[in-house]
């Protein structure tokens, strides 16, 4: 296909759009690939659309190759199936809801677990029909509170979602692995760097879950990895639990007056002053943080989290573990006199205590650990309060922040923290959706069994941003060959008719050979502007036809490496083809 | 690509779905191509999706070939641009509206004139940038009151919409013609019969408009055509206006008592009885029909339409000519004493009359025509009331029904009526949208001129239904090669392992040659069921590998013609390829 700059619907801009926060957004907008159309909504211009369709094609080829079958659902979906699984409510403000002219409720699908489950239930009934993997490449909708970073977080986006259906856990494991492998091939072909991290199941419930994150400083997700190969989403990191300490011979707890110790720092200062040899640090204290949980049925409950004083509660980790309950600030101290603000101690807490307030502790709180903590009296703390002897708890909770240097749970060394963007997600859903929507098949013995499912997603429009983000340089976009909107950018410079004739002839020869060529045929644009545009637009190979033509040479340039070479006009097409096809 | 029936996500059904009104819906559902997902919303199963994508590809190729450039807009659109053109209100209940979490208004795009206009305004500013044609292939939304006929009228559907931008009328004419020609190529390639009919501009305003209708008895649109080549949408038919008759010497009007003549038939009976030689028929009477117009600003107005008594008002024609006003029943006779129910006569009507009520007449009412009509008194009619002498009117209106046998307006003979489905629409919008949204460019003289636009649509998902509707037979679907989900259906019958081996080998050989093959490899399904499924699924070429194999022959069948021939196993692939490639 031949694209000519004189007619192509594109305008390159000198200035960054005011609302562009990240390089990919800046460059895609400046190079005329996308244009903002609505809050969190972008229009794909011809070049951008070509990249998106290339990404789509790669995703489709790999899904087909693994045996998944493509279908396509409406985006406008009825309320009932989402009501049956509870997600109509759980999604809260995050989905778009609307009514039709008759007042019936609909939503714009953010993801389609319910619909796929019902479709399979509708058509299939036997273990012989399984395994089955279905997918679609579709426009999805989420009412994001804060659309950001251009194509990275929009309210309308293109996603490949697939769903696997198996009769048993072993089958589900195979389907999961097949998707995981297909995803590695997809991201490899897209030229995207990625880390596969363990992930919490989050809103979905289910058993096993991994995310494909592309490391980037502009990423919204924090993940951890160790030199030994461990990688996880921060929400999924589990704490290395210390061994319990025998209780015998441990010192007795003792209450101390600790006026004016409103913070951990001031408390530690007093403790160190009073007991200089004890080696107290913030990690010696146990702070008890009160939050309020709002359950899906609307009821609220106070929850106290006990954790070492040198760590904060990580809001995302907390949200992930308490889901589907939501976390709210706790303010109603008046209704709970057992909670002495600033001096809350474990001895007043727990389901079995007089207060009845649920008390969960960080996994580092094991029997025999001794703590400085609140004494449930204003101005007093208790020292050497010993876990398992002086206080108990209702369970542990993974809510404390993860820090660089923490040990990896699998013993593979200290963790480092990095930022990334989620590009893909593989998820063993288990039987949650099948149970809610009654998807059963007959097994080999003629018995009805509930199907086990997986759900899997790739951010297709997001991948365009991620590729731009990870490959661009200071001059502009740098597309990998697999997704570039054109294989070659032919630039004709000067005013000499012979130059334009040669450039067009070369372009047409390359098109005839099967390439897509972007030919800059603009007659009155200066060479400088044309070169700048070529760098900004980012085709992988740039051929300049200009002054050298009188000497029988063209310039061939590799956009990514910047390497240039002169090639003879005679046989130029073959040389360009060789460069393109590697 | 190889599709195997044993794993393909498809279930053929013996029975028609209860809600299927038309053959295409019945067969697409029974053959497992589509499945109802919501009111007016369908899921595309793997075979249906393949057909849709083939249609899409053909549309895309022809749009690219005519020089249109593909872009892609969000479907979720902000209210403001639609407010600026008045369509936010005009669409009434026919669009889906929703609010985001902040309460901002959005709609789901039914068509994108506003957004394309704004995009071009955003990027372009000179006559040198034009002409420009942009298109998208996109999911559209309309809140249809009565989704019907399967894929023919849904609330979520795939459409190719394009928009042309020109600096002057001559350019717009060229863009219009280019689209019109591309559409003929598209429908030719899809194998769809079509008639190009003149169409009213309807809700859009604008100057020239044609529809591509596929004739089918299940069509919602009535159109007319003459043997001499005239074709028009019923809304667009203009009446052949008779010559006026000199007023001199015409008889004087005379009022007659006509009790008990509540209908045209009873009135004509009385007239014939009283004046047996006058040759009175229903066409001699002038009936005056009152309706109420509701204007977009909310105000209401009575309107009287005078038309020959042998014709009814055609609701669609009336709606088209009064748009954007809406037609409501008129009931408030009490407020308008000039309107004597059942005996309304022209002498009480007209903007200049005492009543001030607007009076429009059928174009057949020309000066000198004489009429039997109401005398504005209960039980009385006036005879020989002569147009242009005894009464006047405010203008003419094309609201009377069109009947078979009426003359074509271009003199090409009598009209016949037929039913069809709109598959495409080409539309010279003119400057309405450009003016509302201020799209101007500098012309050659440096003067700002308003751009003239066209809008053009092809129903992509509807085309799948139309093809199925026009090609099916009593056994099932019959796909044209251009859109068939597979080129060949290979059926292996019996239990002989050699049969399955040969069938698979042939299938794989055909796939290697570039075909898509659907191979019925199901081991325990009877030949009868397999043959029935092959007829129902409708691949253009069916190859049966069965009993004949021991004699070295296969059967090759053409689904459309039913022709069968035996072909030798040796060289079978070449014979099949020859059949497929014609």
Automatic annotation (TrEMBL), chains A, B:
A UniProt-annotated Pfam family: tRNA-synt_2b
EC number: 6.1.1.15
One annotated GO molecular function: aminoacyl-tRNA deacylase activity
Alphabetically ordered keywords of this record: Aminoacyl-tRNA synthetase, ATP-binding, Cytoplasm, Ligase, Nucleotide-binding, Protein biosynthesis
Function comment: Catalyzes the attachment of proline to tRNA(Pro) in a two-step reaction: proline is first activated by ATP to form Pro-AMP and then transferred to the acceptor end of tRNA(Pro). As ProRS can inadvertently accommodate and process non-cognate amino acids such as alanine and cysteine, to avoid such errors it has two additional distinct editing activities against alanine. One activity is designated as 'pretransfer' editing and involves the tRNA(Pro)-independent hydrolysis of activated Ala-AMP.
Subunit (UniProt): Homodimer.
Comment field on protein domains: Consists of three domains: the N-terminal catalytic domain, the editing domain and the C-terminal anticodon-binding domain.
Protein name, per record: Proline--tRNA ligase
Source organism (scientific name): Klenkia soli
Gene: proS
